[in-house]
Write a structure and sequence with these properties.
Helices cover 72% and strands 2% of the residues. It is an all-alpha fold and 330 residues long. A three-stranded antiparallel β-sheet has the order 1-3-2. This is MerR family transcriptional regulator.
């Protein structure tokens, strides 16, 4: 007997589960969280899917196999983040996890090769402690070390509180960490114990500190403008706006105008390049690695970095337009 639903291009939840090699429970779960909704229901209330929903489900199952989180998958499907960006994040996360697994294997191998049972247990204990170290202790370590790196005392007093808050932004929300986050914690701790990193981080913030002190930039005014701009850029990202779009350029114009007012200077290509030097995430390989680890330890930081990149791309486009205008009138 031919199934009428299949003949009409509609598939029951059981058929979808069979086609995709998963379970009815899994298909129902993705419906409940809004990732794969049935196109229709039978008179009896049973879910019906089309080939489009089946393709979407297969994509989700593939991404889950590659260890993508549900929220990242949601953002990929909605277009909030690009596939290339998501792939970069996942490659980074899995690479970090790979380093953690290699470290585990090394410790276990040393434990296996030790001569005494008690010595083996000691090595195993080291492994357990390295993976399950108190989150509270780690947070205190990270907070202390980053505050040290940022040499907060070199900023005016009104900047101290906002800098501390930016440090706290490194820390993840409460809850169990993934293996990738745990590995990133470990690497972040190693990085923050490096005197070379501290020196390079200071150098990467040199322009920012100089401008803040020279022009007496107001911390509250700067941060309020930054948060307002990033909220507007978040909407632009969701709408898939390009750097040269009106929406992005309006944010660039407003932010740069505020910066120019603080410095009491006209908006020129030179001022825009100075602005990028003040606010852009840059530096040595160690410094860039620090920002990457931040986005692994606290995934909320990923979207913030994405909005910053859109801002800088918009500013670069603005610079090109201003320089083209200058050449036209020269």
């Amino acid at each position: 007997m031919v199934d009428v639903s299949v003949q009409s291009g509609r598939y029951s939840i059981g058929e979808v589960a069979k086609i995709t090699g998963t379970t009815v429970k899994t298909v129902r779960y993705y419906d409940q969280i809004g990732l794969v909704k049935p196109v229709n229901h039978t008179e009896g209330g049973h879910r019906l899917y089309t080939t489009e929903e089946i393709w979407r489900l297969e994509l989700i199952l593939t991404l889950r196999y590659l260890s993508f989180g549900i929220e990242d998958i949601r953002k990929i499907i909605s277009g909030e983040i690009s596939v290339f960006t998501a792939l970069d994040w996942q490659i980074e996360a899995l690479s970090t996890q790979q380093r953690m697994i290699s470290n585990m294997i090394s410790i276990l191998q040393r434990a296996k090769e030790s001569d005494h049972g008690e010595e083996s247990l000691r090595h195993i204990r080291e492994l357990v402690e390295s993976v399950h170290i108190s989150t509270k202790e780690r947070k205190k370590f990270i907070l202390d070390k980053i505050q040290e790196s940022m040499f907060i005392d070199q900023f005016p007093p009104d900047w101290h509180e906002s800098l501390v808050q930016s440090v706290i932004g490194v820390l993840p929300q409460e809850g169990k960490l993934t293996s990738g986050q745990s590995a990133a914690w470990t690497e972040l701790e190693e990085l923050l114990n490096s005197t070379e990193f501290h020196q390079e981080f200071r150098e990467s913030m040199g322009v920012f500190i100089k401008v803040v002190n020279q022009y007496l930039i107001d911390a509250e005014k700067w941060n309020n403008k930054m948060f307002d701009s990033f909220e507007r850029l978040s909407v632009a990202i969701q709408n898939r706006e390009s750097p040269d779009s009106q929406a992005v350029q309006e944010v660039v114009d407003d932010y740069v105008a505020e910066f120019a007012d603080m410095l009491q200077a006209p908006v020129t290509p030179e001022l825009l390049r100075l602005f990028i030097g003040v606010a852009r995430i840059s530096g040595t390989n160690r410094v860039r690695r620090f920002w990457e680890l931040r986005s692994i330890v606290n995934p909320d930081m990923r979207f913030l970095i994405h909005t910053k990149n859109l801002m800088y791309q918009g500013i670069q486009w603005k610079i090109a337009q201003l320089e083209a205008g200058e050449r036209l009138h020269s």
